[in-house]
Amino acid sequence: MNAIARRSARIAGAVVVIGGLFVGLLWAIQRSLIYVPDTSSVGPADDVMPGARDLTLTTSDGLDLTAWLVPPAPETDRDIAVLYAPGNGGNRAGRVTIAAELADRGFTVLLLDYRGYGGNPGSPSEEGLAADALSAADALEAEGFEPARTIYLGESIGTGVVARLQSVRPPAGVLLRSPFPEFTDVAAHHYPFVPVRQLLRDRFPSVDHLRESTVPVTVVYGTADTIVPPELSRHVAEETGNLVEEVPLEGVAHNDAAMFGAPVADAAERLADHVTR
């Protein structure tokens, strides 16, 4: 082997080693890249939303999670609850606006914080979030809202959470805000040169849970979303077994105010009207 060949072999070997280290690092830290919780305590519910109260959710693996239960406006009370499953960042204090919009339309709202969020114990994972959402459904049932009188509203990664939840605890309806077919599709969009489909442990295969579902589903997404590309949300709408409405919000990005305001609450209201006819 001549000098050039030996040098090329050494470079190739170094690239393989560096690549392997990079992939190994991604494997080790992937959940810290997926989940970005605000871990600070949010305080009593009534301090933030007058009339709201604190709930404790007990998960199947023994965690006690705090959540807020927001009452409906008395003059519009629908006697229907919304289980709100948030996205991967912040905590429930950042969802006060959408909770107020939903309450104004007559919904009782359970604002869930997953494990590791909002002062809750534990660390987030796909299985953990599934257990957290199931405990929220249990808590609503204890409050008098069985699944048939509940709408699951998932935001971003929360769409994967409620897609799975509806497959085991079917509700009256599901609203998916910025959904994806599988979380690996989002990761592959942002990291096209990384083998994320092989690396990711938390996959949230939403379409697998929705394709044969008979639960009425509404899909809402922003056409300017750069986090969950709108074509991914459109694909969910196409594959969903019982689609009621597809709502593209023109020019709206993933975390714009409209995503936490009237357009989403209006879609929830139309879905409720549909399932209670």
Automatic annotation (TrEMBL):
Read off the SUPFAM superfamilies from this record. Answer: alpha/beta-Hydrolases
Query: Which InterPro entries does this UniProt record tie to the protein?
Result: AB_hydrolase_fold, Hydrolase_4
Q: Please verify whether the record's keywords include Membrane.
A: yes
Which superkingdom, per the lineage?
A: Bacteria
Q: Where are the transmembrane segments?
A: 12-29
One matching Pfam family, short form? Hydrolase_4
Span of domain Serine aminopeptidase S33: 95-183
For this chain, one GO molecular function annotation is:
hydrolase activity
Name of protein? Alpha/beta hydrolase
Organism, per UniProt? Aeromicrobium camelliae
Per the UniProt record, the lineage of the source organism begins with:
Bacteria, Bacillati, Actinomycetota, Actinomycetes, Propionibacteriales
